[in-house]
Design goal:
Blueprint: H1 2-11, H2 33-41, E1 51-55, H3 61-69, E2 74-79, H4 82-95, H5 97-101, E3 105-109, E4 122-128, H6 137-145, E5 148-159, H7 165-178, H8 185-198, H9 204-213, H10 220-227, H11 237-247, E6 250-254, H12 263-266, H13 270-276, H14 281-291, E7 297-303, H15 315-319, E8 322-325, E9 336-338, E10 344-346, H16 349-360, E11 363-364, H17 365-371, H18 377-385, E12 389-392
Parallel strand pairs: 1-2, 1-4, 2-3, 4-5
Antiparallel strand pairs: 5-7, 6-7, 8-11, 8-12, 9-10
Length: 394
């Protein structure tokens, strides 16, 4: 089965992102060690000269971002497709990343399940869109968990079955029409596109494709990855947490916590919210996805203990904390900017002055309280909880 997967990605190296003659634009905060660690722990990591594993790196888009966003790190990208790795190596050469970071970034052809053979441990492991394509996802996540250093975090992305129902139906339809020649992925793309071209416009599969996937699926590599993959394991909350339990790691949280807030769905009913109080976390997550089944994937963090977290409820600890801006803000300096999740934020005048003062020079919260007499600790905690600032105990 791994050979079939390799053949797919050798035919259509994925992701088919363009090769640029400059470093990648923008950011994904989940790939920024400082921002991701802060999200998981409430504080700045104690060091930035870490090792990062990009497990299932494909054509290297994520690997390039990982080194670009973490210039003090060493990054290793592994994948089972030689053609995808060839594109990844070309990518970092063309963008200048290879010349700038040298031996800090490497690629290796290796199945994810064989990650145990890699020497040493990693403080950050990134595994996006890979585990659900393994014949045995449990073996894959266990291999990765063995390489996660104590206090390290792992970022994972896997498919949800609820939001991919139409995809599953089209996968089966293409397979039936393709017959025994399913490893001819170019033929599969041709058949799939022919189906979509001739289905009625009001067909649910056509409607879903146009609503959610059509823009990215203009590229054959994306179409093939979605509809022709020889291995796909889709999860629901219950099976997802079976996978997490098998990893032996701690669940830190989903990286899109707003989706997992039940109040956005049932908050107008005090009775239903009261009834939900007796649910476990797992039951509450399941209720949310049942009531809002549009979710197509899960993104979350796992950790190997000890992972020290701080909630900054202690006033003196907060007063002594060093403060800086979250590195994943777009549009600063301005009262209007985009936060780490690329959501619009409008700062008050006091919030703006606080952020401006803490960027002018390294500052402790207590010092900024003296500079801005109207400032209070509750406002500082609000900025920290909204991931606009990062605090450290140094």
């Amino acid at each position: 089965m791994s050979e079939k997967v390799a053949k797919l990605y050798n035919t259509y190296p994925f992701p088919p992102d363009p090769l640029l003659s400059e470093p990648p634009p923008g950011y994904n905060w989940r790939w920024n060690w400082v921002a991701a660690y802060n999200f998981c722990t409430g504080r700045k990591p104690p060091r930035q000269d870490i090792r990062i594993l990009d497990a299932g790196c494909g054509t290297g888009s994520s690997t390039e971002y990982l080194i670009h966003l973490n210039p003090a790190a060493e990054v290793l990208g592994i994948d089972l497709s030689e053609q995808a790795l060839a594109v990844a190596r070309e990518r970092i050469q063309k963008s200048g990343i290879a010349a700038k970071y040298g031996e800090q970034i490497r690629f290796q052809r290796l199945k994810l399940e064989d990650a145990r053979s890699i020497e040493g441990e990693f403080e950050l492991i990134n595994c996006v869109g890979v585990l659900h394509h393994l014949p045995n996802p449990v073996a894959g996540i266990q291999a990765l968990s063995e390489k996660l250093a104590p206090g390290g975090i792992m970022h994972i992305f896997v498919y949800s079955e609820l939001g991919r129902r139409e995809i599953q139906l089209m996968q089966q339809a293409i397979a039936l029409l393709q017959g025994d020649n399913r490893e001819d992925y170019r033929e599969g793309v041709k058949i799939g596109r022919e189906i979509f071209a001739h289905l009625p416009a009001d067909n649910p599969l056509v409607i879903r494709e146009k609503q959610r996937w059509a823009l990215e699926n203009q590229r054959d590599a994306c179409f093939a990855d979605m509809y022709l993959h020889p291995v796909e394991v889709d999860y629901n909350i219950e099976t997802l947490f079976d996978l997490i339990e098998a990893s032996g790691l701690d669940f830190v949280g989903f990286s899109n916590p707003r989706y997992w807030n039940l109040e956005r769905l049932l908050g107008t009913s005090p009775e239903l919210m009261r009834r939900s109080e007796g649910l476990s976390d797992l039951q509450r997550y399941r209720l949310i996805e049942l009531l809002d089944p549009e979710i197509s994937h899960y993104e979350f963090f796992l950790a190997r203990p000890p992972l020290v977290k701080i909630d900054w409820s202690d006033d003196q600890q907060l007063i002594n904390a060093l403060v800086e801006l979250n590195p994943c803000l777009e549009g600063w300096p301005s009262h209007s900017l985009f936060n780490y999740d690329y959501e619009y934020v409008q700062l008050s005048e006091l919030e703006y002055q606080f952020l401006e003062n803490c960027t002018a020079k390294p500052s402790r919260v207590g010092q900024l309280l003296k500079e801005l007499p109207q400032l209070n600790l509750d406002l500082v905690r609000s900025l920290q909880s909204r991931q606009l600032i990062i605090l450290s105990c140094e």
